[in-house]
Amino acid sequence: MRGMSWAQFRHAVESNVLLNKAPDILFIHLGGNDLANTSVINLKNTIKRELNYIRAALPDSVLAWINILPRLTWNGAGVSDQVIDTKRKRINRWCRLRAKKFTKHEIVSVPIDSATPGFFRSDGVHLSDVGLELYLDCIRDVILKFC
């Protein structure tokens, strides 16, 4: 869901699982929209709570953690883009360690960086067609690995 934050995560999962069977793979690409307005400690606590929920609610699903991607600009941050990018790296590192606690897990590192031209649209936030294609290739590789 575009624009989603961790506060909306559980509701989104519950809504989909109630109407369907548990997913074989649960891809989580979330947190970028939280970086600008949430402290690292609060974000870690929220993510920990939600990942514990997922582990209990969907024990047979593979958790595929997709690292929070860099951006050319972090809209609404009120602080420098460099500060937000440092938070992003800290959260990614911490989430990779949390994801490894799942019996079945995969860490997805999409090789997109903010220094390579062409990965982002002109807004500096959303992926261009090239960036999106690379992102989807990484997801496809995980699906092929587990299905």
UniProtKB/TrEMBL annotation:
Q: Which Gene3D superfamilies match?
A: SGNH hydrolase (3.40.50.1110)
One Pfam assignment: Lipase_GDSL
The Swiss-Prot or TrEMBL record annotates one GO molecular function as: hydrolase activity, acting on ester bonds
Superkingdom per UniProt: Eukaryota
Query: Per its record, how is this protein called by name?
Result: SGNH hydrolase-type esterase domain-containing protein
Organism equals Dreissena polymorpha
